[in-house]
Structure formats: C-alpha cells, structure tokens
Amino acid sequence: LSCEDHCSVNASGHGSKNGSRVGPLEREGCHYLLPMAESQPVPEGLTVNTLHLSATGMDQGWGNTGDSGLFVYLRRVEGGQVDEPLLGITYNWRRSASHEHRASSELLRGPFAPQPGDQFMVRLRCPNYPGWSAYCKRLRLTVDCQEQVEEKLAWSLTDQWQGEQERAFFRLWAALAEDEYLSLDMSHLSLAGQRLQHVWKPLGSQDANCGASRPAAELLPRLKSLLASTKLVLARHVQDAAEKLLAKLQRNETAVGAPAQAQERSSRYAELASVVHRTFDALEDKKSPGEMLAAVLQQYADCVEDCIYRWEREIHNMHDLVTGEASGEGALDAEDEVLRVLYRKRRQMAESVLHHTKGANATADMHFESHFYASLHFGLAEQLTARRDPHRLTYLQLENRVRPDALQAELFEDYVPALLRQTIRKEVFESQGSGTQALREKITNWFSAHIPAGFRANDTVESRREAFLFEYCYDETYRITNEALNYMLCCMHILTARSLILQASGQSLSDTEQFPPASLGSRSSESDRSVRARCTLS
Q1: What DSSP string describes 362-379?
Q2: Residue 451 pLDDT greater than 90, yes or no
Q3: pTM of this prediction?
C-alpha cells in the first residue's frame, strides 16, 4: 500500500493533498485525522504476520513536539467495531530531526488477528493545539502474509504414527510443566476480540443494571398487560407462581442467600427488576410474543421458592432468551469467563502502576490518567476513552520521566504465565465468591471437551475423561495442576507454546518471532533447547 501524495493537516483541521483542500476531517478527541491510504480487504486464504511502515514527514518543527504522526488502523469486517490502532510513527524532532521514518510491528495472533475482509487504513494525525501542523509524503505500508495452500501428498500416511501418540502426549504434558516454552499470545489483548467475548462493553451500551430506576412495583401491572394483549392462557398455578416471584421483588421479601439488611436486599432486587423490565420491553416489541412469554413465566414459576442465586440465573437466562444478548454469567463460555478474570487483573495492575507513576511525578490530575492509558497497549477499554481526552497531551513535557515504552515494559514484566496461573487459581479455584462454583464446573466441562487426541485413544469416552481429569488436570488433593492451566490457556489463545511445537518438529523460530517483546519470556539455554528438540508431538 503506497501513497506518493504530499499530505498535510494543521491545528485548525485544514487538510490538503498536493495543495488541494480536503475535508471535513474526522476527529478523534483533540486530533484531526487525514485519511492517506486504505487497503483492499484481506483476501481469503492469507494469514497476516507483520506490518512495515515507512514514510517521509515531520511536524511543524518548533515549539512542542511528539503528538503528531502516522497511524495504521485495522477496520474489522464486523459492523460497529472500533478501529484498532496497530502501528504508528510519532513525529518528535527532539529525539530525531530526520524526516525519514520506519516502524515495524508483529500483529496479533490467534482468532482475533486480522481476518479475511478486514482493511488497513493509514491516517495522518495532528492535534488542535495552536501552531501545530504535520505533513507526510512517500508513504509505504508493506504487509507480510502467509498463504495457506492445500497440497495433495504423493505418499500415504502409515499407521506407525499412532503407536507414538501416547508417548507424544506424555512429552507434551511434561513440557507444559515448565514456563520456558510459554509466552503471551497477544491476541487475547485485542479490544475488539474482548468485546465480542463480552469481556467489556463500550460506554453508553446497555448492561444488566440499565433501567434500575424503574420500580419493581410496575412489574405486576406490566405482566397483566402482556397477558391481556397476547391473550395467553396459562395454567393457574404457573401464573400464580410467576406473579408471586415478582411480588417478592416488589415487597423486598427475604430469600435464601439474599442480603439480611433490607437496604442491601432492595438494591439487589432492583437490579433483578431492571432485567425483568428489559425482558418485558423486548416481549412488547415482538409481533407474536405469546410462546416466548409462556416460556419466561414457566421459568419464573419454577424458581420462585428457590434461593436468590437461582432467581438471578433464571431471570438473566430468560432475558438472554428474549433479547439475544448475554447479560447473565451462565450465558458466557468458559473462555469468556477466564478472559474476564484476566481483564480485571490487568486493570488492577495498570491502576497500581498509574498510582505509583502519579506519586513519582507529584500529580493527581485526571487528565494525567488519560495520558497514562493512551500510552499503553494492555487490553483495557480505558485506552479507547483516554485517546479522546483533548487535555491529556498537557503532560507531553513529562516524557523524560513518563516514557510509554517504560510503562509498557513494567506491566509486561509482571504479566507472565506464572501470574496468569496464580490469578486463575486465586479468583476461580480457591475463591468462595458468588458464581465461582459455577465457573469451576464450566472449566471442568471445558477440560472434558478438550482431551488431547493422543491421550488413551483406544479407551472408552468415559474412561478417557475420568483419567484425564483426575490423573492429569487435578492432583490427589483436587487442586488444578500447572500443566492443566497452561494447556487451557494455550488452547484459549492466551498463552502460546508455539516455540515448543516448532522445535519438536525440527523447525526454529527467529528471536523476534519467538519472543516478541523482550520482557515477555526468557530464553532457555542451548542445551535445554537441543534436548527438547527431540520431542515428537502428535
């Protein structure tokens, strides 16, 4: 992708190409964005590996610097997704007066890497500070890809490999006990990917607490109105039981597991009432809601005498059934839940580094927080909102003390496989918090559905399941093993053991591919790698 046009943009939002005015320009916070080039959609059959960006350009060359430049965005084929910045060149004449710039970036891997149909866009960015401007010419973006081609082999595979699959499993499991072959799979930090998996929601989106101000007292009249409009005839005991559940929410009656304090219980019930209101909203919008209303009321009736946890599960599940959303914890897959746990941990880590940095620089201004989050790529939704704060760049003069690369390295120095395992153990397997038992059961079911192909292939399904779970995934005290957690995290594209697989097959990785950021992993010795290279894997 190349562009030979001479493009410029200034602080007033005036953009030009080869001297001709273009606009109006898109705006992102305090920055004006001038589109320079847009790629064709990524073709089918290609896997995007690396981006290389080169350009000639600079800012105004006087006063402040370090906030204009070129950025490569990824626009995903799914509608409504946020354009993700993948690679950038920042003009900073204090660091380099050269107008020639180059930058490269290894892209996200895994299921949320650039997909067929996605597009790359290059934009020239300039803030609206008085006197600022930026230009660019001779832009070139090179995208390294791999093409997947199916070849028919000239020979047939013998059955000899089947005799090695059990040994291959043992060697694989032994290798998963060590962290030297593991590194982060950066795809799990993709904000668009995490949004698709319900890890975070953009500001202003509807969540489970929306409409909490609508009183529970309106639920019974709304139900009677729905029954009348649909002319639905229910069994008397079903309708009575469903109305009884709504009445309990209205009267703030006690239930097993509900808070003992009336005020706390009322707040908890108000959240449930808001979900029921949203369910009724969706039913009222449907042309023929009778059958679905009957299913909803049947579930309400079945759980009326149970604990509050059953109420929450059934009310959320019925909401999801009617609306097609995923508001209840029970609606999420095990992978979505694990990503949520790690998201919360990353947020805590970022806040810790933020407060330490604020203390070191003696500032408590909220705009400094925007400057902090906008400087990171750590898979947090705050990064998107921070980029839209026009006042965050007040802190550019602190660059000698607040370096984005140093902040990034500090976070990734601690965000390693051992910490990920520790977090999942603490927050899931050793926690007594609400919903953790259900999550433990989900993960156990996940292991049952992801037994490695080479494990006891000749045994019955039930025998393989029992042996895998209780001999390899859990120890004699029923604690989850490190090998099992590493296996799960690799399968979920949170960690990667790619170096182990390629070494076992006699191939090798370049240092850049094997350890993307230097802080993400440590190299094993040559002797260790030569021993591991003798492993064979199915």
Answers
A1: T---HHHHHHHHHT--SS
A2: yes
A3: 0.57
Q: How many CB atoms lie within 10 A of CB 347?
A: 16
Nearest to 520 by CA among 503, 500, 495, 538: 495
Write out pLDDT tens, residues 24-37: 898 877 889 999 99
C-alpha to C-alpha distance for 68 and 59, rounded to whole angstroms: 7
Here the tokens at position 536 are 């064979």
Structure token pair of residue 283: 């039913």
Q: Is the pLDDT of residue 419 over 90?
A: yes
Q: Is the pLDDT of residue 384 over 60?
A: yes
Most confident residue range from 407-411, 510-514, 530-534: 407-411
- For 132-146, how does the pLDDT look when each residue is reduced to its tens digit (9 = 90+)? 999 999 899 999 888
Cα–Cα distance, 370 to 381 (Å, whole number): 12
Nearest Cα to 43, choosing from 148, 158, 196? Answer: 148
> Which single residue is written with the structure tokens 């492993």?
535
- Amino acid present at 5: D
Coil, strand or helix: which one is 71?
Answer: strand
Rounded-to-10 torsion of CA 399, 402, 406, 409: -130
Q: Residue 2 pLDDT > 80, yes or no?
A: yes
DSSP state of 458: T
Secondary structure string (H, E, C) spanning 80-107: CCCCEEEEEEEECCCCCCCCEEEEEEEC
Which of 151, 181, 35, 67 shows the shortest CA–CA distance to 535?
181
Q: pLDDT > 70: what percent of the chain?
A: 81
Q: For residue 348, how many C-alpha atoms fall within 13 Å in the half-sphere facing its CB?
A: 10
CA torsion sign for 74, 149, 509, 53 is: negative
Mean pLDDT for the chain? 81
* Minimum mean pLDDT range among 206-215, 275-284, 379-388, 397-406: 206-215
Per-position b or e across 63-85, b if 16+ CB within 10 A of its CB: ebbbbbbbbbbbbbeeeebebbb
DSSP summary character for residue 32: E
Report the alpha-carbon distance of residue 189 to residue 199 in Å, rounded: 11
Rounded (10°) CA dihedral 190, 191, 193, 194:
110
